[in-house]
Specification:
By secondary structure, the protein is of the alpha/beta class. 52% of the residues are buried. The chain binds N-carbamimidoyl-L-glutamic acid and zinc ion. Zinc ion (ZN) binds next to loops.
């Protein structure tokens, strides 16, 4: 956190684009004023200022297997064969490795224009499944990594109990993930303690999925939590998951969740790929956000989220980089829009209406949905919000002669990460001219971890 006075030639404010703006940020990292003109002592930051994006879905440990699951296996490859490979990698990581991998990932997120991450972490125990002496150890390592990188974090410890619907026993590859209600609530309490009063940290929970947690168990865990605690759950990502849920309960996963819980704005349904029209409507009006991870969903062959129907019904969306196969808000929003164009054979499928920019519509929806999903006071350049700002490089030839929505659309549909020049989190200037202030030492530790892990 840092007090700052920043001047921009152009900025996307809550009510639209404005030229020649000074943003004042207090010592606690919050914006206190946004005013036209340049105040005398303001630091001029060249470029186009936009609110930095929340990344609502991260499994940090998967960052270290990027590119290593793209070779055809002996049989038909699927989400489930990828998952086996991922479990193999997940069994290798020590706490120190996880911190090194997460810190590198968080630097990459910041450089892409994200300011906050929802860390959905389920590596709890030692590789043989024995709890660490200090059970929250792996999550604390994620928080340490976030602290080194400077990214805001909503830590979402994962409740994982079963290997499949209806309380099936966990598989051997899942042994690091498993907790009961008591051990889980202890981890939650400790993380809440560690985060109390911290301006960049929030704590939520992530029941892994209805495959891994029964509704009864989830009710027991949710009951004692503060009412505003964010709840993130993987839902209806794969067709087999829908079929297994139907076979077990007679309901599809989204139907089952909506029947069993009072789903509201504190909930984020991660993926929610496979929904009927009725489920799409019902989830949209429940107030839950759909936590979409379009590049991971494409990489894993999940299917296509019904974004046109969901957003028409007033559904809130947020974006996450999930497996981190791509870490880029621009590319995830682009993939989301392209999935709808390919599906419906149209263009500008998700634009708010005639004459509206598709990139702007999606960007603003993902800002507000993401801020709410993570319970982070960000997502707008406005007094009372945290000073989380990304700056696009107006000097890049791709943006020559472009401003406002045209610049935003050019970034999202064409330029991607190369156009992100500066990033501030709570007023701290973490990414300066495309370099993170600690990127060399964090990359050095990451390389050492990769050598230890021998990948
Ligand atoms: C995860 N990832 O927990 O990392 C999952 C795979 C599962 C995604 N769903 C494992 N993208 O769902 O069982
Ligand atoms: Zn996930």
């Amino acid at each position: 956190m840092q007090s700052a006075k920043l001047h921009f030639a152009s900025a996307l404010l809550a009510h639209g684009w404005q030229r020649d703006v000074t943003v004042t940020c207090a010592g606690n990292g919050m914006i206190t004023a946004v005013a036209g003109g340049r105040e005398g002592d303001a630091q001029h930051v060249p470029g186009i200022a936009i609110p930095a994006m929340p990344n609502i879905h991260s499994h940090a440990h998967q960052r270290f297997m990027l590119g290593l699951a793209e070779r055809a296996g002996p049989g038909a490859d699927s989400f489930w064969t990828w998952r086996e490979a991922m479990y193999g990698f997940a069994l290798k990581l020590s706490p120190e490795d996880l911190e090194a991998v997460a810190a590198q990932l968080y630097v990459e997120m910041l450089k892409a224009g994200f300011a906050a991450v929802g860390e959905f972490q389920y590596l709890h125990h030692q590789p043989d499944g024995t709890p660490y002496e200090d059970p929250p150890r792996m999550r604390l390592r994620c928080l340490a990594a976030a602290g080194r990188a400077g990214i805001a974090t909503t830590i979402l410890p994962t409740l994982y109990a079963d290997g499949g619907f209806g309380g099936q026993p966990p598989q051997p590859g899942q042994r690091r993930f498993i907790n009961g209600v008591d051990s889980f609530l202890k981890i939650f309490a400790r993380l809440s303690e560690e985060s109390k009063g911290h301006p960049l940290r929030r704590v939520g929970i992530s029941p892994h999925s209805l495959r891994a947690v029964t509704p009864d168990l989830l009710r027991e865990v949710v009951a004692p939590l503060p009412g505003e605690t964010p709840i993130h759950i993987h839902l209806a990502e794969q067709v087999k998951e829908v079929e297994d849920c139907l076979a077990h309960s007679g309901l599809r996963p989204v139907e089952l969740l909506l029947q069993e819980f009072d789903v509201s704005a504190r909930w984020t349904a991660i993926h929610a790929t496979h929904m009927t029209k009725a489920e799409t409507q019902a989830l949209a009006i429940s107030g839950a956000a759909a936590g979409l991870c379009p590049t991971t969903e494409a990489n894993l062959g999940d299917g296509i989220f019904p974004a046109v129907d969901f957003t028409k019904a007033g559904g809130a969306i947020a974006i996450g980089s999930d497996s981190h196969i791509t870490v880029s808000p621009a590319e995830d929003l682009r993939m989301l829009e392209y999935s709808q164009r390919l599906q419906h054979r149209t263009r500008n499928a998700l634009a708010a209406g005639p004459g509206q920019s598709t990139g702007r519509t999606l960007y603003e929806k993902a800002l507000s949905g993401g801020a709410r999903s993570l319970c982070q006071n960000m997502g707008a350049i406005a007094p009372g919000r945290r000073c989380d700002i990304a700056v696009l490089d107006a000097g890049n030839p791709l943006l020559a002669g472009r401003e406002g929505d045209a610049a935003l659309d050019t970034w999202i549909f064409s330029g991607g990460n190369a156009l992100v020049k500066d990033v501030f989190v709570a007023g701290r200037h973490l990414v300066k001219d495309r370099r993170h202030i600690h990127e060399d030492e964090i990359a050095r530790d990451f390389r050492a971890a990769l050598r230890r892990l021998d990948t």
